[in-house]
């Protein structure tokens, strides 16, 4: 058999059509926001947190988080003396309506707001079998709701417990760092609602962001550093008992 | 060419393979979204879709563009760094609307609102102003004595009474 000129005339246009679809996909024009100019994180200042629950309520309102599920929540730690291994931790309804009044005692109390750490080596994005969750070029870990199957691998993979399966949508859901806000130049809903400045959105690529001065003058820590997740939620004044 | 005399079936098979591959490419082109792989192993357009959601908290800049008098009062007091929507709740419906009068915000009930932050508890940071609500004012609304926008006693209370609503 020979591949004649006739065969080639049939095959080449077909190949051209096929290649067009392979090559397709030009980036959509984004407005004023350039992903490459940002690298988002969060600063959480534990000594400033009063456990009012404003952030939890604001997040639920802004992101329509169903009751009983949390993209951010607040835990109250009670550590007695040197018992770092066994702190007493409470978080009634995620701290949404605040915390019961604590009586003065020999222990130490503090509040720890928690949320997605927007890890730069995130375990959750690595386990997704369909490419539905990813680290955006500006460092925010997001979920593509159209691609997510709801298999919940990522829910298990997150060492911080920051993901859940949405009870109605049946897909994974988590903090987007208010992506719809930060791309418009606003801060996150939790930061906007925090009355004491205990939470501050941080753009690590912006040299004039106050985060750089803060990091220069404070000793900060991330949660579970031994997991090497590259977490970008920086905690000031984090106690060793925090898990 | 004599070596390939009996190889026709191989070429036919190779041709079939090529055609199957092209069909695969065409199907793949239709099935895989155009932006998949734009930035990585995910649909690039998802980023834009997530960014497009409407906001519910307008941001204090939006509030201050009209309520500059309140912003000035607030800037002088202890609540200077408390954003408007920390107390008044999400107000994008009011602040970002073409007609802000269409959705007038409900004034928060100070007995609930102030107590959320200022109820005394050993768990709170020691420097934070805290009171035992029952002992401190016994049911009298906070704004009777304090202007929530500048809470020190004696500062001009421009506060008007609450009209209900706990949020």
3D structure, described in words:
- The complex is a heterodimer of chains A (about 240) and B (about 170).
- With about 240 residues, chain A is an alpha+beta fold.
- Chain A has a single domain (about 35-235), classed as Alpha-Beta Plaits, CATH 3.30.70.
- Helices cover about 25% and strands about 20% of the residues of chain A.
- Chain A has 7 helices and 11 strands.
- Chain A has helices at about 5-25, 55-65, 125, 155, 180, 190-195, 210-215; strands at about 40-45, 70-80, 90, 110-115, 135, 140-145, 165, 170-175, 200-205, 220, 235.
- In chain A, the strands form 4 sheets. Chain A has a 4-stranded mixed sheet with strand order 9-1-11-10, covered by helices on one side.
- Chain B folds into 3 domains: about 10-50, no CATH class; about 55-105, no CATH class; about 105-165, no CATH class.
- In chain B, about 40% of the residues lie in helices and about 0% in strands.
- Chain B contains 8 helices and no strands.
- Chain B is elongated.
- Mean pLDDT of chain B is about 90; it is low at about 160-165.
- At the A-B interface, α1, α2, β4, β5 and α5 of A face α1, α2 and α5 of B.
């Amino acid at each position: 058999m020979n591949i004649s000129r006739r065969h080639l005339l049939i095959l080449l246009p077909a190949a051209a059509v096929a290649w067009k679809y392979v090559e397709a996909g030009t980036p959509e024009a984004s407005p004023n926001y350039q992903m490459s100019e940002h690298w988002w994180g969060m600063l959480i200042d534990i000594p400033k947190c009063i456990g009012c629950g404003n952030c939890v309520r604001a997040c639920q309102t802004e992101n329509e988080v169903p009751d009983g599920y949390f993209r951010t929540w607040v835990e109250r730690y009670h550590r007695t003396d040197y018992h770092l291994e066994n702190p007493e931790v409470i978080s009634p309804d995620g701290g949404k309506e605040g915390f019961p009044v604590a009586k003065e005692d020999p222990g130490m109390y503090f509040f720890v707001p928690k949320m997605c750490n927007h890890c730069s080596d995130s375990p959750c994005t690595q386990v997704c079998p369909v490419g539905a969750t990813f680290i955006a070029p500006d460092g925010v870990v997001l979920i593509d709701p159209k691609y997510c199957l709801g298999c919940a691998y990522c829910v298990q993979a997150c060492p911080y417990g920051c993901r859940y399966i949405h009870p109605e949508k049946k897909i994974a859901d988590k903090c987007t760092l208010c992506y719809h806000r930060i791309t418009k130049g606003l801060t996150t809903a939790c930061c906007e609602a925090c009355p004491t400045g205990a939470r501050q959105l941080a753009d690590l690529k912006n040299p004039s962001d106050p985060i750089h001065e803060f990091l220069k003058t404070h000793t900060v820590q991330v949660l579970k550093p031994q997991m090497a997740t590259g977490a970008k939620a920086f905690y000031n004044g984090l106690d060793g008992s925090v898990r | 060419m004599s070596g390939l005399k009996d190889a026709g079936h191989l070429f036919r098979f190779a041709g079939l393979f090529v055609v199957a591959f092209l069909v695969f490419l065409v199907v793949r082109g239709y099935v895989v979204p155009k932006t998949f792989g734009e930035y990585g192993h995910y649909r690039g357009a998802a980023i834009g879709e997530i960014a497009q959601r409407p906001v519910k908290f307008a941001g204090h800049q939006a509030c201050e563009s009209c309520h500059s008098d309140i912003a000035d009062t607030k800037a002088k007091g202890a609540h200077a760094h408390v954003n408007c929507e920390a107390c008044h709740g999400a107000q994008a419906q009011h602040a970002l609307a073409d007609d802000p009068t269409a959705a007038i915000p409900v004034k928060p009930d100070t007995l609930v609102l102030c107590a959320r932050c200022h109820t005394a508890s050993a768990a709170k940071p020691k420097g934070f102003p805290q009171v035992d609500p029952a002992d401190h004012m016994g049911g009298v609304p906070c704004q009777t004595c304090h202007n929530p926008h500048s809470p020190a006693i004696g500062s001009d209370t421009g506060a008007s009474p609450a009209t209900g609503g706990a949020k």
